[in-house]
Amino acid sequence: MSDLSLPTHVLTEIDSPIREARLTGVDELARFAGGNDLAMAAAARSALERLTQDDSRSVSAAAAAALERTAIRVRPERVDFGQLAPGTPRIVADVLVDGPPLALASATVTVSGPGLRAMLTGRQLRILWQPRSEWLDGSVTVRGPAGWADVRVTGQVPVAAAPVSRAAVEAQLQAVNTTVNYAAYGPSRVTVLPAPPPRRRLGGAVLVAGLTALVVLGGVGVAWSLLGRPDTATPTTAADLLPTAAPVAEQSPEASAGPVAPITVPKEVLAHRIASLGKPALIATIKVGNEPEGVAVSPDGRTVYVANQGAKVLSIVDATSRQVSSVTLRNTPRFVAVSRDGRKVFVSMYENDKKTGSGVAVVDAAGKKVDGYVKTGDAPFALSTGPDGNLWVPIHGAGRVEIYSVGDQKPAGVITVPPNPHAVGFSGDLMRAFTANHESNAVAVVDMNTDKLLKSIPVAKAPHSIAVSPDGRRVLVAGFEANAANLIDAVTLKTTGPFAVGRAPQSVAFAADGKHGYTVNEVDGTISVLDASNGRVTATVKVGKSPRTIGVSPDGRFAYVSNGDDDTISVLKVGE
């Protein structure tokens, strides 16, 4: 890579005979290596590689450290599938691929190990093992212009199983992959598959019996696995991970002859291993700006962003220390979204006439400063970053959603939906987007492959907010004027409900494990907690005055609720 892509002053610094100048040059190169200009990033890494051979030990060490900081990374670096039941057709784990934009540019994936397959989509590395032997000790390697990273993959089938033919495996996989892209290894759903015949240990205890279920847990680092039905309620067993809406299959006489040994899912491969609580607890209140509205949590869960309407300020809350800093914005902030890599924060803005000042502020998360503003249609509402990596902005003042690229915020598309869209959620596996359309009393379903409207679904009056479960299978909608919520099956698009909640449900969200949903009830000053399988309210939790929106931390432990009349956010413990 030619150094011509680098600024002249940087070339002067790294060629200087003065050590301090070269160290300054290393810092500049590190900044370019992490930037969005891929040509400059590649040139910067090439220069850093040369500087690792510098005569000065401090310069060479600084260059090596800079290369490490801007290299491709995987989290976790090891996936241990643990012990699987004999006859398990497959098990899948999702791993996060991290690093600057260059790290993923033209990245390729190679695998080593019997029965291993892998696919990289954006920053998600999906690893699938179809057991072909008793042991697995393999690896998946991601290579790109910013180096390479390995994921070690291990697993065991402790008891030899009857061989499964290729045709049988393909038939099982095809049965699961009937609604989405087959290359994506199937949708996030529960499917009952035939089990192998019962097997016994030497001591006579039944190891496997009955049916096994394919459990899919959405999110980064989450394993999909085929699990036996446990006979005890042990917290670390598969039973505690099974969705409550899982199909129930009849047991054969042989299956009911004895207890079924639980299969333990390795905790280290589960990002969403926290179990959501049927009754969350209020544990803290944090003072933020005047009249907080939108709330968003960073992908690493360390930062909470709050849009304060009355102060024209974005509050930045350290989730650990609960210290608050702020960024002043040009116009009144309304709602917040964070890019999938956590580097940029997007804040929708407009004044009370729903026209003046309409746009999106782009905030640099690390520098805590405004990078710029994007002009949008009138009254941009609850914006969100989609699985396509773009920023989706519902335009309340018109029946449309505007799409912008996250990197440079250039327009990437416009989708017509019924008036007036308030919020947008996504099912990544199904490639469907859902918008809550306030004045149309409907949810719009958009095919993300074509950006076309598939269907408009009637729901409870004045849908204000929408959320899609982590597995992409259920959609929760708040009917603001109906004091109710609806659930929608993301595949069949069938609606259940309405379910009575508190008064004026303003916002909705799902728990990280998908077992519970939340509605923020503005008039009552409460949060309704719903069983996501049937819509039943399991608890009502008091928060502050005039609560507006809710954000759930990615690990599932906490939720943050903005209280518009208290100038605070409530911190709820929602999982453990």
Topology:
Blueprint: H1 8-14, H2 19-33, H3 38-51, H4 57-69, E1 73-75, E2 78-83, E3 91-98, H5 101-104, E4 108-112, E5 116-121, E6 124-129, E7 135-144, E8 147-156, H6 166-176, E9 191-193, E10 199-200, E11 206-208, E12 212-215, E13 223-227, E14 276-287, E15 292-297, E16 303-308, E17 313-318, E18 324-328, E19 333-338, E20 344-349, E21 359-364, E22 369-375, E23 384-385, E24 390-395, E25 400-405, E26 411-416, E27 421-427, E28 432-437, E29 442-447, E30 452-458, E31 463-468, E32 474-479, E33 484-489, E34 495-500, E35 505-510, E36 516-521, E37 526-531, E38 537-542, E39 547-552, E40 558-563, E41 568-575
Parallel strand pairs: 2-8
Antiparallel strand pairs: 1-3, 3-6, 3-13, 4-7, 5-6, 7-8, 9-12, 10-11, 12-13, 14-41, 15-16, 16-17, 17-18, 19-20, 20-21, 21-22, 23-24, 24-25, 25-26, 27-28, 28-29, 29-30, 31-32, 32-33, 33-34, 35-36, 36-37, 37-38, 39-40, 40-41
Helix pairs in contact: 1-2, 2-3, 2-4, 3-4
- Strand-pairing-aware structural class: mainly beta
Rg over CA atoms, rounded to whole Å, is: 25 Å
Question: Which architecture of the largest domain per CATH?
Answer: 7 Propeller
- Count of β-strands: 41
Helical content class = 10-25%
- Might you state the CATH topology name of the largest domain? Methylamine Dehydrogenase, Chain H
Q: For the residues shown, what is the average pLDDT?
A: 79
In the CATH hierarchy, what is the class of the largest domain? Mainly Beta
Q: List segments where confidence is low: pLDDT < 50 over at least 5 consecutive residues.
A: 160-164, 169-272
State the CATH superfamily name of the largest domain: YVTN repeat-like/Quinoprotein amine dehydrogenase
Molecular shape: globular
Keywords: Membrane, Signal, Transmembrane, Transmembrane helix
Organism: Paractinoplanes durhamensis
Pfam families: YNCE
Domain YNCE-like beta-propeller: 332-508
